[in-house]
Amino acid sequence: MEPVRAGVWGVGVWGEKHARVYHALPGVTLVGVHDRDPERARAVAERHGCRSFASADELLEACEAVSIAVPTVEHRAAAERAAAAGRHALVEKPMAVTVEEADAMIAAARRARTVLQVGQVERFNPALLAARPHVRGPKFIEAHRLALFQPRSLDVDVVFDLMIHDLDAVLDVVGAAPVALSAVGVAVLSGNEDIANARLEFADGCVANLTASRVSQDRLRRIRFFQGDAYLSVDLFEKTCEMLHVDAARLRATLAQGGPAEAALAAIERRRLEVAPGEPLALELAAFLGSLRGQGGGAASAAAGRAALAVAAEVRAAMKLRARQWASRATAGS
């Protein structure tokens, strides 16, 4: 089978990572890159042994599939151009600025009969992959995603920048959209919210509490799942996963017999799950490319990317509403 000819449109910090991974992956040929900064494109092309294309159209003509890593406000136009050229595309998260734009991107890919997937790369974190088979019917999910301040991606708030990873993970696990949510956010160092917290409630009773910050002193990426018979703690940064499993029948019997605390604790098994090695982006791009050859489901689907975007938009609206309430109270009290 011939290697997939792939290109990267937009080679900023994250786009260059795509170029690096494509260059190293088997079963793919990195034909080239394009960026609105020609010097940047030439430098990246030289580092990763490919061609720098002067225009996006030239890049699309030369490849079968393209990673779109331009600024979010340009995602729709880029995805529509890729579809019009008959090219499969993986667009970085967030999928678009609005749900309406995401719908237009999906429609364009459907008309062209091309594949459109979304770079929700945390799905491919080896620690989350290890935990996923053990997550069944969670009652409560808690996620913390804290990052140091970096002067990039400031065109979107922290929900679209960081929290959207955890929103996608929660939606994937629960398998449904929330029926209610509330949120609060604060702008600290940029013109958009840099810290946010959201509480999502689902029809099955599950509740998710998500916190994201891009102005923290420490780096933390952790998601925890609490369910009827188990607790899983997934460290996405360290790529580790710990699981506590309760033998409910044994625990009930021990407690009913008035047994000692040690006997009750023996009904709780604590173990570290085996986490396979792997770079999330490499796993994601390999899945994307494989799906083009009928080998697996690929990266996050366009529908999943749209779903995460829709909930992120609801969280943003809830933050803005709370901010207006604060402003109204401050005005009334002055």
Calculate Rg over CA atoms: 22 Å
Distance between the termini: 72 Å
Work out the count of structural domains. 2
Order of helices and strands: EHEHEHEHEHEHEHEEEEEEHHEHEH
Can you tell me the CATH class of the largest domain?
Alpha Beta
Low-confidence stretches: none
Any guess at the CATH architecture of the largest domain? Answer: 2-Layer Sandwich
Would you count the extended β strands for me?
A: 15
Q: Biggest sheet, open or closed, and with what strands and sense?
A: 8 strands, mixed
Strand order of the largest sheet: 8-9-10-7-11-12-13-14
**SS-based class:** alpha/beta
Mean pLDDT: 92
Strand content: 25-35%
Helix content: 40-55%
CATH topology name of the largest domain: Dihydrodipicolinate Reductase, domain 2
Helical segment count: 11
- For the record, what is the CATH homologous superfamily label of the largest domain? Dihydrodipicolinate Reductase, domain 2
Quaternary assembly: single chain
Give the overall form: globular
Offer a quick outline of the entry.
40% of the residues lie in helices and 25% in strands.
Key structural traits:
334 residues, alpha/beta, Rossmann fold, Dihydrodipicolinate Reductase, domain 2, eight-stranded mixed sheet, seven-stranded mixed sheet, 11 helices, 15 strands, globular
